[in-house]
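DM from R.C. (forwarded with permission)

"hey, sorry to bug you on a friday — could you get me a structure for this? deadline for the figure draft is monday and I only need the backbone to look sensible"
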Amino acid sequence: MQIATFPFEATLMEAQMKKQSIVSGWQTFDLKIVTFTSILLSYIKIIMKLYKSNLKSLSPFLLAISFFLISTISIAQNKKSDEDSEFSYAKFENGYIVTTHAIKYSLKIPQGFSEIAPYNFQAVFNKHPFNVSIATVISEKNFIMVSAEKVTDSSGFLDYSYYKPVRLSGLDFYMKDDCVELTEEIIEQATDIKYIKENGFDFGPAVYIRHFYKNTTDGTYEYVLNYGELVCDCSDKTIDNKFMEEFNKKLINNIDLTIIK
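My reply, with the result:
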């Protein structure tokens, strides 16, 4: 059975297990472009040395190469703005976070939380390409991020049944908890976390987060609700029974989820 990994969890797995890289397919493509660019620039330098006396006749050739480089580097950009995105699976509507793909849920925005504009991006996880839409609300110490996703290679590999089955707002999910210290390096690598930070949420020294997963039976679409709280560290002294009691109480009070029929 293949283990599905969505963006936020991919980052947490990197921080905790040090066994997986959180470099998306686009980021890998960027690296290949940089390598190719370096080689090509070296080639240009060789040409300039060999034909130093006749650069004027070579200028159209060099200009063509420069245009090719600019075009290629532009293609390697790894993010699309909401204006030119080809998909959008999550939005804010009348005080709710609403998902519009195959798993249609409506999450009421709790009092004291402010909205961060939805963001759409493409990424590769476990060698599978994804369309990802996130919609996030934040308070001083907590965040709720809804991630609506589609695996676009028709593999149907999404399956979270290896996690703990739970009920949330009367709906069936699979659940996983994490606590991790988010370094600047990790934040820089993770598209979703970086976007949330850039839009006003300070992750601080560490974050405790609970993930709720739901996928379609054909393994193509998924809905992930992430509820996080800032903590000073991930020690047993901090994440004790008292913390978990308060965390669970606040989560229940802040999560009001319904199916859109």
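R.C.: lifesaver. The two ends are 31 Å apart (CA to CA).
me: no worries. The first strand starts at residue 90 and ends at 93.
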